[in-house]
Amino acid sequence: MTLNKEILNIATYEAIHWWRRDEYFYHKIFSRIPEFKLNVDDLNYFTNFFLKQFARQYSVHRTIKNPNYSKLLDRLLKNGYIDSVINGEVTAIDSIIDVLPPEWVHGRPVSF
Which of 4, 35, 47, 54 is at 20 to 30 A from 66, Cα to Cα? Predict the structure, then answer.
């Protein structure tokens, strides 16, 4: 199957659209987690607003059972998962299954 130039242009513009609309925003916010964890109020605000919004938008709820977002973020911070993601370690995505307790997981939470 070959892609014609028109389809490739449409796909490129769509990728740019989603990056500018959502992905860049989340990238900037999530990159500030180490800063947020220094202040309980900032961390609570991040958890209750941005993390929950992200989880809904990316359907994380399908693979994380009854999430308590504060406990979830705490676990991800303590296990170094957040630092791995911020540092661009692509294998971090596959390791999330090892970071979360089995009773929290349904399927493979790679969208998270």
Answer: 35
